[in-house]
Amino acid sequence: MKIICVGRNYGDHIKELENERPSEPVLFLKPDTSLILKNQPFFIPDFSDNVQYEVEVLIKINRIGKHIQPKFSHKYYDEIGLGVDFTARDLQNQLKEKGLPWEKAKGFDGSALVSSWVKKSKFTDINDLSFQLQKNNEVVQQASTQSMLWKIDELIAYISQFFTLKIGDIIFTGTPSGVGKVASGDQLTGFLENQQLFSLKIK
Asked: What fold does the segment set 3-201 form as a domain?
């Protein structure tokens, strides 16, 4: 199982971090050791003073695929979830300045929260899913998949050009604006179409 993440897929988040708007999806990977185990908290690592949350809609791949055409992408997933891509922003900025890979800032142990899964058939329009993240009961991120630069089926087709997609692979589809720092004692709660899919304690 691999975790494939898409960066810079919401225009407001690109502006927020003052990044350049990409001409094609930005991809990076997280190892399976980045997964937060069920019912476990997120532990802030000691190598960062600015770990930030990034809420994202997730897709779980249900069949093997390579060079998938966009019109067939919908056949490769039937479950949608919500997750948090935890990012050591201070470390990421240092790496970006040197032109180095982001993995230390993005793929460290416990840096990926994956919620429970919901059947795709329960949603009327995958390209207009509302989702939000609350920190300590205050909404900090809120968006719709309608705002994605590249929609879910486009992402699956694009990713499959480079990586063979296998059963159980998870795609993080990008985060909207509103990212921010976490602190010990925070509680993060995620909602997809007004349904709570996770609640996570920060330690």
From this structure: Fumarylacetoacetate hydrolase; domain 2 (3.90.850)
